[in-house]
Write a structure and sequence with these properties.
By secondary structure, the chain is an alpha+beta fold. It contains two helices and nine strands, in the order ββββββαβββα. β8 and β9 form a beta hairpin.
Amino acid sequence: MISRLTGEATFFDLKVAPQKVVPSPVGCRSRDLSAKEWRWHQLGIYRADHGKFEVEALTDKDDRVQILLLAHSHPSYKPNTPGDSERRAFHEGVISTDLAGQHEFSWGEVLCRLNATENKDWLVIAYTRGPHVPGQTPEVLLRLYAREPEPCDN
């Protein structure tokens, strides 16, 4: 589900990669945040090897994913469980299996955070902000591969 090499989160019907444009599945809700140039995207519930997860993303002004939020979704979770400890334990298990228990990587950091108002634990993947590579549009590729004429030896 979470790649140790790249930080990419892969579900059966969805793939989210760091610094890539957020996917816009049908039914996705998005809104601007009060923090300038940030957007919140509620992508929906997706199935992975570990079960179903609510998937949300925070993006920059170019809609590139900076933070990915995952919450395991299962009917057995009770809303009054202190600290949503059952879901937290499940999230820690995902970190243990997929990432060998490691939390910090060259591509970012993975942690668990409790939303106290909803009593819901989230698996948070915060990607390292790095250089923005231009999109591979034909104009960009032509510029990158353009050749100057060879110099003449007179």
